Fold this protein.
Amino acid sequence: MSATLPASGTRTARAAGVVHPGYRTLWRWHFYAGLFVMPFLIVLAITGTIYCFQPQIEPLLYPHRLVVTPQDTPRLPADTLLARAQASLPPDAKPIRAHIEANPARSAEFIFALANGRKESVYLNPYSGEVLGTLDVDSRFMQVDRMLHRKLLLGKPGELLMELAACWTLVMIGTGVALWWPRRASASASASSSSDRKGSTLRAALWPRLGTKGRPFWKSLHSVIGIWLAVGALAFVVSGLPWTGSWGKQFKALATRVNAGAPRGAWGGGLPLKSSLPGAQTDHSEHAEHAGHDMSSMPGMVMDDLPLPNVPWAVGAMHVPRSPDAATHENARFTLDQVVGRMHALGVESGYDIALPATATGVYTASYFPSDPQQERTVYIDQYSGKVLKDIRYADYGAVSQVISYGTSLHMGRYFGLANQLICTAISLGLAALAVTGFVMWWLRRPTRTVGAPSRERAAPPMRAWKAGLAILAVIFPLMGATIVAVLLLDWLFFGGRQNLSAS
């Protein structure tokens, strides 16, 4: 890409005769996109790289809690471990989740909701039942890193900012590739000199000019990094957008309505999953009883509301069913060990989480989110009879959700192990390098009394394809469309005066 934060002035390029109609228009938009995206790219790059290596980092951060010495003796029953974890906390602590792990070197983990609204993880030695320690779920290093990556720790406003940054990164990539694209040699040049010029142009476009200094060097480095990363960066943005809190939810709803998203039963489509008790009515006391406790199968609750660390995109909007057997099995609750046995019989043995029922009509919800998307499972188990109410697999997803599942696994560096992590790291740090080199180019010019945007063209060409592309992005991403209009107005009011807006 050409320059994330370039300033006005292309004297060298003009002298070489390579400034083409529309070049400054693209450059101006590239500048504005880079100006906005740069700080977010750095945050996304650092937090994303860290999160990619979560499996390696967390045992190093919390070795005395997460890691145990494997023993020949059998592990204690899950219900025994849960009871010991419960006994280590205040009496009003409520169990909301269990992590099921068969790794002999891994501790047992249970999550509780405390009366003060916090969630606490309790770790135990699965062989002796000894409590190894606790961690605040929301203060855990990887959770903080994840929330920085998704929301800047600012809640909904931060989530919208990150979504906007992702959308404007698409503009930055598109304009950067357009600015980089090698131009044809002059028609008046000879065939041999034209061929030499093309080869030289291609080499300069794909390899930095290491012998230069100052701004030409940084521009060359920025351009080369950008073009090598363009495809990977585009894949990163596209695979991350479905998880955004605004556009992602709307996209999920649309995909479901055209039968390309979640399984039947989500978003009110198809057959409902929710089971009703004969003669039962919704009781507001149920809501009051579990205020501050986010694990209960209340009307309207969906998978994304449950205290699960990872939920497949396809099922995030599915309504959580309620137990159909609550009226007849009040004193015969299925135990956690029995649920684990049921999951084992279904072929899921380790590395999954179970959201525990917190109401008389709640169900056990098991979520398996492995590195291979085709192995994803979401299972609802009645808490009294142990009946499997719903077993959702990858094959049940719509076509869109299947693609997104693969994109998510690749985006998180999970699909093909260490190699996937290293590729994600290269792309993430490369994006950070784009932001840094763009800033250096802008700083070397140090414009005064102005933001340093490239000047307008006096007579810009129609650029119909470019305008159509912006219009399409504005329609697909309405939030971005509003900011495009805002940029045009601000550019005209503060930097354009009475100049023609079509050139901006």
User: Anything to note?
Assistant: The beta strands are 94-100, 108-113, 119-124, 131-136, 352-355, 363-368, 377-382, 388-393.
